[in-house]
Design a protein that fits this description.
The protein is mostly beta strands. The chain is built from two helices and 37 strands.
Length: 434
């Protein structure tokens, strides 16, 4: 059965797609130290200004000004803290070793302990609102609250493995991942957990789900798993990472990030078909991600805090829920069509980077047999600077990208993308430089 994309073939939709690309520039990462060398394990931002980080030996700090300053907060504990979550500017939770759960209603000025009923380390939590949430930890620990943590109830997952992340998309549907390739799934709010198999034994650390069908899991040895059918099937995705990946986050079916050992920050713009590596200049393992508006944060060992304040909020137009359903109707149909990309520049002989990777040759150049999806193109010309664009490659078509490199005396460059859709050539000029 043919993959239906009728909505995307409308000329107006195509034009809007192209216009949405005009505001996208290559993202930049900045290291923001928090005046500590303490290992940081978790963070959460509720707005571009307000965020918290937690770490070893009861460490917790808050920023009220978008990371310019970090203020120490006090918890009466020396336990390692692994995760923090706030449902608004005032109400939040922190979890850590020895079954510890702490709760605040005044933005962390004061913290009160909650009774978990367990002594195992607690690693990650997932809250739907101020009342309902789940926590996972060592030895198969699963906890659930319906009243904001006044009462925590144990759930049974039929495993004694360490569980490292939990994600719920609504009150009924959620996933848990952990050691030895454990993936647990529930459609009953956790009253019953069922094993899913990805046929791996790697330690799994992080998960991200957009809805009841599509999600990603990351773990040891650069493992990235993807499902589009609620976990009935898991497919491995390739990346440059060889160490552990600890956290993953997606904003839509195309745009996502994961972080891990050796300061890995990986980004995808086509749902994980291709992952490019950002190089913020840190070597410490990075443990967690938090995104609010166009600002993405990650933290790691030795007090490292890294921020990208220029994340483009891409309009999701490659795959809609209807598209996912269409794919599920034909789960065994292979992807047979690819697309091509022709890149030209003025002047000629610009180096070409595709999804962060330097390609052989210089402009003009044609790159063939690309898997359909969104790609990042960066052109670099000696003495003329760089220019960056995101372009969508379609099945069976050739996308033409023409770039006018910045002149030596001006900071303005132009990108002209031409895509042929249903026989109609659509062109748009975009002013982007780096």
């Amino acid at each position: 059965m043919r993959h239906s994309r009728a909505k995307l073939n409308h000329p107006l939709v195509v034009l809007l797609m192209l216009l949405s690309l005009s505001a996208i520039a290559e993202a930049s990462w900045q290291i923001r130290q928090s005046d500590t060398k303490t290992d940081l394990h978790g963070l959460h931002f509720v707005s571009t200004m307000n965020g918290w980080v937690v770490g070893a030996q009861g460490f917790i700090q808050r920023t009220p000004d978008g990371g310019r300053t970090w203020l120490q907060q006090s918890l009466d504990t020396s336990y390692n803290l692994y995760d923090v979550y706030f449902c608004n500017n005032d109400t939040g939770w922190v979890i850590g070793d020895n079954g510890s759960i702490w709760y605040t209603t005044d933005a962390g000025a004061t913290w009160s302990p909650q009774t978990s009923g367990v002594t195992q380390p607690l690693y990650r939590m997932s809250f739907l609102d101020a009342q309902q949430g789940w926590i996972v930890g060592s030895f198969g620990t699963i906890l659930h609250t319906r009243d904001g943590g006044k009462n925590w109830e144990a759930q049974y997952g039929d495993t004694n493995m360490a569980l490292r992340d939990v994600r719920f998309v609504n009150e009924q549907i959620g996933w848990i991942v952990g050691a030895n390739g454990v993936i647990l799934h529930t459609t009953t709010g956790g009253s019953r957990w069922v094993r899913q198999s990805a046929q791996i034994t790697d330690f799994l650390y992080g998960a991200a789900f957009l809805n009841a069908q599509e999600g990603w899991i990351v773990g040891d040895n650069g493992t990235i798993l993807h499902t589009r059918d609620g976990g009935q099937r898991w497919e491995k995705q390739k990346s440059s990472a060889v160490g552990a990946l600890y956290s993953v986050y997606f904003t839509n079916p195309n745009q996502g990030w994961c972080v891990g050992d050796q300061g890995y920050i990986l980004e995808t713009l086509n749902g994980g078909v291709a992952w490019s590596e950002a190089k913020p200049g840190v070597q410490s393992p990075l443990h967690a991600l938090s995104l609010v508006q166009n600002s993405l944060w990650t933290v790691g060992e030795k007090g490292v805090i890294v921020q990208n304040s220029d994340i483009p909020m891409l309009t999701e137009f490659v795959r809609t829920d209807k598209t996912v359903e269409t794919d599920l109707e034909r789960p065994h149909e292979p992807l047979t069509k690819t697309g091509n990309l022709t890149i030209r520049s003025e002047p000629l002989k610009a180096s070409v980077y595709l999804n962060g990777q330097l390609r052989d040759g210089v402009t003009p150049v044609t790159i063939s047999d690309l898997v359909p999806g969104r790609y990042q193109i960066k052109l670099a010309h000696k003495g003329r600077g760089t220019i960056t664009q995101y372009v969508y490659v379609k099945e069976g078509e050739t996308s033409l990208v023409q770039a006018r490199m910045p002149s030596r005396n001006t900071a303005i460059g132009a990108f002209i993308s031409v895509l042929t859709v249903s026989g109609i050539a659509v062109a748009i000029a975009i002013g982007l430089i780096q």
